[in-house]
Amino acid sequence: MEEAGKICLIGAYAVGKSALVRRCLGASPPASYRCTLGLSISRASIPVQGRAQVFSLWDFQGSGSFGRVNVLCLREADALIFVADGTRMETLRIALDMRDQVLGLTGDLPNALLLNKADLKKLWEIPENSLDELAGQGIKAVKSSAATGLGVTEVFANLAAETLAKTPPPHSRSYAPKTRSLSRAALQREEQS
């Protein structure tokens, strides 16, 4: 089956990106933490308007900034999921910084910010009014939990639907590669930082 698009997951270390991918794939998150080294790519069938669509899910190694290698991997991305850990406030700052940086390079792609680990309410550090504040800034922020599945399916399905609404179906695309790519100037700015 032909892929309908590419969704990239971006965020700091240990925010639950890989666990969210596993949940999207229909598997439970692992019992213990495993760090992604570099990049992990999976294929997921995501229901959009009653029909399964296959998307590649690019799970980037967590970090505090977005490096040149990762910038190159963003080529032809169709949607972005930025992930923060609700039990660690600094990961929200990192996710928002990465969001600004990445959208500055890729342009306005469908995207969402997941405030993950909502099942750990007693450890939550992100203020309750943060969702409203982020919405006021035009950021789609959703509380999620890879452990329970809260918000996960909905975010992937919504981004998949937005992606397909912006992109013609695969059978109507020409053989030419996608024209959306990072400009030489954007890559040079990234190399200098």
The largest β sheet comes out as: 6 strands, mixed
Largest sheet: spatial strand order: 2-3-1-4-5-6
Structural class by helix and strand composition: alpha/beta
| The CATH H-level homologous superfamily | P-loop containing nucleotide triphosphate hydrolases
CATH class: Alpha Beta
Q: What is the averaged pLDDT score?
A: 80
Tell me the strand percentage band: 15-25%
Assign the CATH architecture: 3-Layer(aba) Sandwich
Q: Element order, helices and strands?
A: EHEEHEHEHEHH
Distance between the termini: 39 Å
Low-pLDDT windows of residues: 169-183
CATH fold-level label: Rossmann fold
Question: What does this 3D model show about the protein?
Answer:
- With 193 residues, this protein is an alpha/beta fold.
- It has a single domain (3-192), classed as P-loop containing nucleotide triphosphate hydrolases (Rossmann fold).
- Helix content is 33%, strand content 23%.
- It contains six helices and six strands; from the N terminus they run βαββαβαβαβαα.
- It has a six-stranded mixed sheet with strand order 2-3-1-4-5-6, sandwiched between helices.
- The longest helix has 18 residues, at 89-106.
- It is globular and about 40 Å long.
- Residues 169-183 have low confidence and may be disordered.
Which key phrases capture this entry?
single chain, about 190 residues, alpha/beta, Rossmann fold, 6-stranded mixed sheet, about 35% helix, globular
